[in-house]
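**Entry details**
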Amino acid sequence: MILPIIGYGDPVLRKVCEEVTQDYPKLKETIANMYDTMYNAYGVGLAAPQVGMSIRIFIIDCEPFSDSEDLTQEEQELLKNFRKTFINAKILKEEGEEWGFNEGCLSIPDVREDVFRKEKITIEYYDEDFNKHTDVYDGLIARVIQHEYDHIEGILFTDKISSLKKRLISKKLQNIMEGKTRPDYKMKFIAKKGR
């Protein structure tokens, strides 16, 4: 089922999310709905708060990045096949050089900015069957994970840009909060609540 994506300004996007237990009601259905929603909006990642749930789940499918000509064949294959669910994730380590990449967010449509993040991460998480993993990722996969992980910590990519850039995009952010933005996917805006 395709869920509405929560727009910038909604308090749920600013909450540190709660851990999920193995007996969480309809866990598999929740995850399936998140994938449906992400694919419908042409996203590469989606976190539970973006569909109104303050729980520590995010999903990733890096396949859309796999056709970049800047990548080696090996990198393209890795991205093409990287589809994963992260439950109760905890980034244990971020290391390496910081590098910039133009990021966007389904909750902040029509806004893209360069964000600098460390190139390599070590992350501990559970998959959808509640098997525990500790993995190391780098490059674009690490970046997408860091972006989605920030969501479950109540952080948005716009928090990581300069105050000058924030001023330059402030009108766009205001338009999102007022529901004046029209992405080609279903959204729920804070200004439209309670009407």
About this structure: The helical segments are 27-40, 73-80, 139-152, 163-177. The CA atoms of residues 8 and 176 lie 6 Å apart. The mean pLDDT is 95. DSSP finds four helices and seven strands in the chain.
